[in-house]
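In the design runs reported in the main text, the only information available to the sequence generator was the tokenized backbone. The following block is the verbatim input for one such run; it is reproduced so that readers can re-run the procedure and compare outputs position by position.
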């Protein structure tokens, strides 16, 4: 366990129940986390989009707080969601890549989390919440130990794995641990959005029990499929770009339906709604992120550890508690959601995590504590690492080349587009970055970052799980 991380955990446990304790004395709020799939930082009107219409998500921002420096867990789906669920960055998690990139591939489907992994859903479940994940799962079949119900979700409806989720007109979806057969003509997103609304309505009718909904639609992930082109039918754009825009606007419509339902049910002021995306914009299925400037002024897209691959839209709305129309430059990441949830509930976060609660930045009652560093690793395309410390961002790529792994250094306060590598002018900062990159990476045989890791231990799930368990023990002992 790194000394800085051990100190961080001590501070979290000492101070982390401040604002949350007061909130916990009130009626426990309902919590909804909406996670779009491959939606770029610049794809929303409230983040500068000029062509795609997103009035409902823009309304969410007007009625809440919009974060400008929030980061996904990874530049691809699976590990990013792992960071959100478990409160750790990719250097400490078991799942660090999408299933096709693992050295040990499962017989079918995705790679499950260790059975004893503690998720934010388990936290809410332990404190009396009804919990559901509706949309894409991606961590093993619902009938296995990595299924949603083993991860703390009472209810599940949607796609079980990543491969299934590429098709918007599927032959089947899952309802808990049973397959729901379809005719291949029903648009899955509409079914998933309808089920999310039904869960909220049914939960509100259950007297005295709050709910936690993890709503994970696959829009705007490729394939580019949509029932109609909506307001873009007559635009003189490439057909695939019309489809992409129509998918984003369809998602926006359903965010609006959800907000309207909260108001109708009179639970608006006791429901927190979070909105984000799992990584940067994709260049798949015929969509070009340049057409809509999907990454804004940022460099990179999905699968990059530059800002465009990992900096994501992040909005939170809680009428009466979060001031409307505010903007926050707080620097946070997906692994902060679990400790934030703990503070909302007025309890200490679990030990052995990397996250810090950002609840003070939501309520405006105090300034949230900052991370000393944020870390990412990604083993595709030769292997990549990135670390942000203060306004400095270090990137290292081509890690499979043992002879040359130079560090790039960028000053985000002056160079948000990461266009000017200033490593040569700041050897002291490069040395600090090297220390942070090394300190935050724990070797993985399932998703090896460096060539020598493949040879270290057998490629087995048991070995990987034991490594994660031992890491957690070390963190607890370090406290």
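Verbatim output:
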């Amino acid at each position: 366990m790194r000394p800085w991380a051990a100190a961080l955990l001590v501070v979290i446990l000492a101070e982390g129940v401040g604002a949350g304790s007061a909130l916990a004395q009130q009626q426990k709020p309902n919590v909804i986390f909406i996670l779009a799939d491959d939606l770029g930082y610049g794809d929303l009107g409230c983040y500068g989009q000029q062509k795609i219409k997103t009035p409902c998500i823009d309304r969410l921002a007007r009625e809440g707080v919009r974060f400008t420096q929030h980061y996904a867990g990874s530049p691809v789906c699976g590990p990013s969601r792992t960071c959100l669920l478990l409160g750790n960055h990719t250097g400490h998690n078991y799942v660090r890549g999408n299933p096709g990139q693992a050295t040990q591939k499962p017989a079918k489907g995705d790679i499950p989390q260790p059975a004893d992994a503690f998720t934010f859903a388990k936290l809410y479940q332990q404190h009396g919440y009804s919990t559901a994940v509706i949309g894409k799962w991606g961590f093993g079949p619902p009938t296995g130990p990595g299924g949603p119900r083993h991860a703390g979700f009472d209810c599940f409806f949607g796609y079980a794995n990543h491969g299934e989720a590429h098709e918007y007109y599927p032959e089947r979806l899952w309802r808990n641990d049973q397959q729901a057969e379809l005719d291949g003509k029903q648009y899955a997103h509409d079914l998933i959005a309808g089920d999310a609304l039904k869960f909220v309505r049914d939960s509100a009718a259950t007297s005295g029990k709050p709910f936690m909904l993890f709503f994970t639609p696959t829009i705007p992930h490729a394939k580019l499929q949509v029932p109609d082109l909506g307001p873009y039918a007559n635009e003189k754009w490439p057909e695939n770009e019309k489809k992409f825009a129509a998918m984003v606007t369809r998602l926006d419509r359903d965010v609006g339906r959800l907000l309207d339902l909260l108001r109708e049910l009179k639970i608006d002021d006791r429901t927190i709604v979070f909105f984000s995306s799992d990584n940067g914009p994709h260049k798949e299925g015929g969509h070009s992120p340049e057409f809509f400037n999907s990454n804004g002024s940022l460099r990179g897209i999905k699968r990059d550890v530059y800002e465009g691959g990992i900096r994501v839209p992040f909005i939170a709305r809680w009428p009466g508690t979060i001031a409307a129309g505010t903007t926050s430059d707080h620097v946070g990441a997906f692994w902060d959601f679990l400790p934030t949830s703990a503070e909302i509930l007025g309890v200490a976060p679990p030990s052995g995590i990397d996250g810090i609660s950002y609840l003070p930045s939501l309520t405006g009652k105090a300034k949230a504590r900052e991370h000393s560093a944020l870390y990412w690793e990604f083993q595709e395309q030769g292997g990549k690492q990135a670390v942000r410390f203060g306004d400095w961002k270090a990137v290292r790529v081509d890690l499979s080349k043992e002879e040359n792994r130079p560090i790039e250094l960028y000053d985000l306060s002056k160079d948000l587009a990461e266009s000017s590598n200033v490593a040569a002018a700041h050897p002291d900062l490069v040395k600090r970055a090297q220390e942070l990159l090394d300190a935050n990476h724990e070797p993985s045989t399932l998703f090896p970052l460096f060539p020598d890791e493949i040879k270290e231990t057998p490629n087995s799930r048991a070995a990987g799980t034991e490594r994660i368990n031992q890491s957690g023990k070390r963190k607890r002992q370090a406290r």
